[in-house]
Amino acid sequence: MQLLIRYVLAPLVRLVWRPRVRGADRIPLSGPVILAANHRAAVDTAFIPLVAPRRVAFLGKAEYFTGRDLRGRLMAAFLGALGYIPVDRGNARAGLAALSAGREVLRRGGAFGIYPEGTRSLDGRLHRGHTGVAALALSTGAVVVPVGLIGTERVQPIGRLIPRLARVEIRFGRPLEFSRYEGLEGAPAIRRAVTDEIMDAIADLSGQTYVDSYHRRPDEGAAAA
């Protein structure tokens, strides 16, 4: 399945969508690396692994891997080959499980993809990042490659199931390393400083307006009210 994705699906995506990829050579080809990206559409998690020069693990809903029929098994095999890791997001420990899964990938020397905003942007702006990305970088020593995705929201707008044709650009920034904070991963101020540095780099790459507040979906706002 991985050979099918590498030699058939990835070239097909490049042929159909013709994504403009910049800075892919900045991704280290070995060792632990975090790809920290803005999040505009569901297809983001497919575009990044298909244009990156190495396998990238992302988190995926556990229910995508539990189908027992042929379609379900093929879906699980396909997502597994892409690098998706099943995580149950329907419980209170989902955040800890996600960090634990990412930490395991990085400790094995792999590449892990993460969206520091925590959810897709509904207003087109880049919102304040959660500090989980900093916790992963500081606890594993992984470098962070910021990623700016442009145009994926036109490929798959909110509510659209089937992607449509639109021009996409994927920009990989210079790797950020935080060895200067070694031993300080337990300090909230350090985690916030690292996260803010990463978000600044993502903003430069994506061209989005940065908002220094966490993104809230409309239903979350209603619940809070």
From TrEMBL:
Record keywords, A-Z: Acyltransferase, Transferase
Pfam families listed in its UniProt record: Acyltransferase
Residue intervals of the Phospholipid/glycerol acyltransferase domain: 33-152
An MF annotation (GO) of this entry: acyltransferase activity
Metal-binding found in the keyword field: no
InterPro entries listed in its UniProt record: Plipid/glycerol_acylTrfase (IPR002123)
Leader peptide range in chain numbering: none
Name of this protein: Lysophospholipid acyltransferase family protein
Source lineage: Bacteria, Bacillati, Actinomycetota, Actinomycetes, Pseudonocardiales
